[in-house]
Automatic annotation (TrEMBL):
One of its GO terms (molecular function) is dTDP-4-dehydrorhamnose reductase activity. Keywords: NADP, Oxidoreductase. This is dTDP-4-dehydrorhamnose reductase. The keyword Magnesium does not apply. Pathway: Carbohydrate biosynthesis; dTDP-L-rhamnose biosynthesis. One of its GO terms (biological process) is dTDP-rhamnose biosynthetic process. The keyword Oxidoreductase applies. Its EC number is 1.1.1.133. It holds the Pfam family RmlD_sub_bind. Belongs to the dTDP-4-dehydrorhamnose reductase family. It comes from the Bacteria. Residues 1-277 form the RmlD-like substrate binding domain.
Amino acid sequence: MICGAGGQLGQKLIGAARASKELRIFAYNRSALDLTKPEDLRAAFAEAKPDICFNAAAYTAVDRAESEPDKAREVNVEGAARLAAACHQRGVGFVHFSTDYVYDDGYNRPLRESDRTLGTSVYARTKLEGENEIMRHNPDAWIIRTSWVYAEYGHNFLRTMMRLGQERESLSIVADQVGSPTYAADLAAAALSLAASEAPSGIYNFANSGVASWYDFAHAIFEKAGIDCHLKPIRTEQYPTPAKRPSYSVLDTQKIAAYAGPPRHWREALEECMKKIT
Ligand SMILES: NC(=O)C1=CN([C@@H]2O[C@H](COP(=O)(O)OP(=O)(O)OC[C@H]3O[C@@H](n4cnc5c(N)ncnc54)[C@H](OP(=O)(O)O)[C@@H]3O)[C@@H](O)[C@H]2O)C=CC1
Ligand SMILES: Cc1cn([C@H]2C[C@H](O)[C@@H](COP(=O)(O)OP(=O)(O)O[C@H]3O[C@@H](C)C(=O)[C@@H](O)[C@H]3O)O2)c(=O)[nH]c1=O
Ligand SMILES: [Mg+2]
């Protein structure tokens, strides 16, 4: 059972599950299963009778969340907790997704699952609270923290850059926020591997390997797309946004690698994704 099936990760989970050929898939987008509606949940469980549930549904608009915290909370905390509890009651496995933005920004080495959390934005705090509520309602849950997710479709930095790069002659992009771009297809495959393994419940990081600033990421996108737009590296203060983002959120992925294999480099994954964009 896949919730949030219309999002970028949701669509890739469907693809990964189909490729395995052994799974019967019940995928629900927001109109079929709204996490804030208990009656939708009951109907979906009755129909799918799943062995395992993947929750790709979330409120992901980082800046907008600053002005509508209740909406973000409703999905990322209450909705996620409700789904986790429903799975636990029925003995259904549960896989949830969280974000690099939950980590404390004081580290200068790849972040481990046991490191301190903080959350400098409404989005990050609702995701963190969601994690805690999930673990309280469902101690068997797997929670995968990931970062900078993109796909050839959906709302993401890659698609924003492709659009702006074609419209503008030059773009200023922050170069002092560092993380790891992650292809939604690689994340989906890792999530299925984790759920099929003997991995204990708890928190797992997953991201493509290698490190990039948003500026590096934009640079690689323009290079691969052959877009001729001048890129200027800037500091965070020069690009004010409603939500404060972490300056360093590279994830240590050793823990999940034991069950899902080592992730490939973000540049290799980006190349595969961009071949799908015509
Ligand atoms: N995108 C990223 O860079 C990152 C994402 N993550 C996490 O990964 C997960 C997947 O994210 P991603 O696929 O990128 O996000 P998307 O925004 O692409 O997809 C989220 C989906 O959830 C749906 N949704 C929103 N509210 C509800 C609701 N009440 N009930 C059911 N569905 C709902 C959205 O529908 P609609 O479009 O109609 O609102 C959308 O289809 C999320 O948990 C996210 O927090 C973690 C790190 C990075
Ligand atoms: C469009 C644009 C953005 N930026 C900066 C702003 C920001 O610091 C950075 C990325 O902007 P975005 O809004 O695309 O990224 P953002 O929405 O913050 O992406 C995050 O989404 C959530 C869901 C997550 O969980 C995170 O892992 C992360 O992927 O790029 C520029 O510097 N110049 C620009 O022209
Ligand atoms: Mg955004």
